[in-house]
Amino acid sequence: KAKIICIANQKGGVGKTTTAVNLAAAISMHKKRVLLVDCDAQANATSGLGINIQEDKGWHLYHVLTGMVGPSKAIRKTEFNNLHLLPSHPELAGIEVEIANREKREECLKRALVRVEDFDYIFIDCPPSLGLITLNALTASDSILIPLQCEYYALEGLSQLVQTIKLVKRTYNPKLHIEGLLLTMYDSRMRLSYQVAREVRTHFRELVYRSAIPRNVRLSESPSHGKPIFEYDPRSRGAEGYLALAKEFLNKQRRG
Amino acid sequence: KAKIICIANQKGGVGKTTTAVNLAAAISMHKKRVLLVDCDAQANATSGLGINIQEDKGWHLYHVLTGMVGPSKAIRKTEFNNLHLLPSHPELAGIEVEIANREKREECLKRALVRVEDFDYIFIDCPPSLGLITLNALTASDSILIPLQCEYYALEGLSQLVQTIKLVKRTYNPKLHIEGLLLTMYDSRMRLSYQVAREVRTHFRELVYRSAIPRNVRLSESPSHGKPIFEYDPRSRGAEGYLALAKEFLNKQRRG
Ligand SMILES: Nc1ncnc2c1ncn2[C@@H]1O[C@H](COP(=O)(O)OP(=O)(O)OP(=O)(O)O)[C@@H](O)[C@H]1O
Ligand SMILES: Nc1ncnc2c1ncn2[C@@H]1O[C@H](COP(=O)(O)OP(=O)(O)OP(=O)(O)O)[C@@H](O)[C@H]1O
Ligand SMILES: [Mg+2]
Ligand SMILES: [Mg+2]
Hints:
2 copies of one chain form a homodimer. Chain A is α/β, with parallel strands linked by helices. Helices cover 43% and strands 14% of the residues of chain A. The structure holds adenosine-5'-triphosphate (2 copies) and magnesium ion (2 copies).
């Protein structure tokens, strides 16, 4: 049975998609079978892995959540052998209204992923909100990985996110826990970056990954080529950051 | 009667709040009476203007939209004479469910702002989504100002936003038009920044402000002091960027 990890933070632009795409690819390079589920109607993780959203005619997550098809029909191969993708589409924006009045509407994704087999890890990329889609992801997951930009507004939103995690754990998903906090766009020359990082490490201690992802323009260039950083520029500091994170993530799994 | 402008883009972290706070403050320095409405449950614009969300016990936007109080009870003074704020609060996250089944649920904000007098301009800071709150802002506004980060994912989301604007214009608000597109976090040394800016200017022509906001760490430091950039570091490149934008914005109003 796969371990399911959602990558979530309601603050926008903190590096959720960049982490989802590159961590999933890095883990798949360790001979683990990985599925990336794109739960954001922006479908950034989908285009970040090379699918052209305007032209693609295949099934996607909207069809799976409304029960039109099973997940295996929507799952796609990627250029990485051990990495598969369940793509999103802008139509997903309509799902909240569609499932709002259903029984157990927070379990639509959980029920769909129960039918998925043959993966060691499933990562879920979330939209920048704490609405019904993110609630579905939190309910379906074993744990949450929180990307945190080293900036003031991002730090402010953390307490709201932690409260939401506690609420979901109490009400919908008792196994949910924090997998880890990842410092993103870290620039050691900036005082603000350094101050936010120190505050987060003091408060969350060993929950914060030792590997911080540096600000590196190669990470923001790679999505325009539809490739993870390891294919676009494997020697970049961004690639090194996510390779180190993957090692640290897998070591934590082994320790249990 | 005030001109109402919403600052919106469903892509996260593109500089909506930073633009809302600093453009509203810059316009108020031109002896215009300005109201900033914070429509985001993250309440970043509220804390960016110095209100401590954990401790504040006053009325806020949730109370106004549910009809508990009129807007004037919730509107606060700021340290800038001509700038007032209608604050947000994390409770606002519950509004979508609260008003979902109401008649004309997309007009709650419009009906509230009709009762607001004595302002020349009203700016609305939106959350990173195209849900019911942003729909309310688009329906209440005369125009939309679109902050656009000079990155690939931000560019990708633009067509979805433009389609949504056309839909709202056709269905709910015939006067809605694009006030302008603002290039944010622009770094002229980066090829990606330059390429995105060129593509946007080619496509949207004179709708794109000549003033681009440079990436400037002072802009991300000022919210931690609860002050607009002009109070925190008036000689910074970030302050210069928003002063130039305010001049360009007001010149466009005069030309009509
Ligand atoms: N370490 C980094 N260095 C430089 N740029 C980065 C880094 N991480 C992400 N970016 C860029 O910053 C922007 C925001 O990142 P990303 O889109 O991954 O965040 P997100 O949290 O998924 O955003 P949203 O809230 O809209 O879903 C993107 O343009 C991305 O390419
Ligand atoms: N020109 C700039 N230079 C440097 N940092 C900036 C600039 N503009 C914004 N920032 C910083 O980038 C981050 C994102 O900006 P901001 O929060 O204003 O975006 P937003 O679109 O409002 O985000 P959200 O989608 O979460 O509402 C913030 O930490 C902010 O301080
Ligand atoms: Mg994303
Ligand atoms: Mg904001």
